[in-house]
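Reading group handout, session on sequence-to-structure problems. Before we discuss, look at one worked example. The prompt was deliberately terse, the way you'd type it at a terminal:

> structure TetR/AcrR family transcriptional regulator

The input record follows.
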Amino acid sequence: MSGRKQFDISAALDQAMQVFWQRGYADTSLDALGSATGLGRGSLYGAFGNKDALFGQCLDRYASIYGAQHEQALAAHPGDPVRAVEAFFGVVLDRIADPSVPSGCLIAQSAAQSSTLKDENSAQVRGLLDVQRQRVRTALADSSADTRTLDELAVFVVAVNQSLAVLSRAGTPDTELRSVARLACATVADTLTRAAPEDLTRG
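And the output record:
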């Protein structure tokens, strides 16, 4: 034994993630990270590297937790893209309503602060948004609508998701957030119906 204090790296990463999630990258100090994790600056640097490297690991951690939930929801209703999108928004709204985590979304929070991020972190945020779009687009592929319509709907769903996160940070009530999600799902359903070939819509 070296005598060096041992700590749970995964737990420290989760604690750091919540600080970035609550405060945003720009307003998160090393002192705040140290207070949340119980680690001194030396231990933080030794375990995670600098602030930017730690932030990147927190983004990955966030994406691995909630991205998996999104993927599971979107894949739960094969052949029914509207129900898949409804399930996706259900997961999003449940996270927003969870009192054990900060409001909003770490990715949305970070996207809004892109100008303060290092280039590699900004690119990472864009990449995570693109992964989300690709997951939604895959769920929509069961529709008979044309490719352009499906591509546009995937962007629309991700945009609504990010808007829900921003609205929740502003204190918008859960009932209003769920109303936004319902209208978004209705828009998806209506757009898919209108975009379907005529022979299919006639049954």
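Points for discussion. First: The domain at 59-201 is CATH 1.10.357.10 (Tetracycline Repressor; domain 2). Second: Residues 1-5, 199-203 have pLDDT under 50 and may be disordered.
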